[in-house]
Amino acid sequence: MGLRKYPKLTNLASLDIAQNNFEGELPSKLGRQTNIVYLLATNAGLSGRIPATLGNCKKLRILNLSFNSLFGPLPDSLAGLEFIISLVFD
User: Fold this and answer.
1) Are 75 and 51 within 8 A, CB to CB?
2) What superfamily would CATH give domain 3-88?
């Protein structure tokens, strides 16, 4: 089951989808969640590239995308996350 099938989410402060069996990419629309502080997706069954739109989540402090099948370079936009204290990409 992909994340795209879930209803529109607005004003998220945190999202924990760890330990799930999702299929597919992390939706680029997550970049619209400008209030999100924590995004935990460890071992969530994700694949593909990390969306550059995550750089729009300026309040993001913790981003954990470990133990997924993600590939490609880290988006340059992540360098603009000035409040980030933890980035994990195993």
Assistant:
1) yes
2) Ribonuclease Inhibitor (3.80.10.10)
The ranges of the chain with pLDDT < 50 are: 1
Q: Enter the tokens of residue 55.
A: 């750089």
Per-residue confidence (pLDDT) for residue 48, from 0 to 100: 95
Which residue, 68, 76, 57, is CA-closest to 14? 57
Q: Is the Cβ–Cβ distance between 28 and 5 less than 8 Å?
A: no
Cα separation, 8 vs 73, in Å, equals: 28
Q: Are 63 and 43 in contact (CB under 8 A)?
A: no
DSSP helix, strand, coil percent of the chain (3-state; round to 5): 20, 20, 60
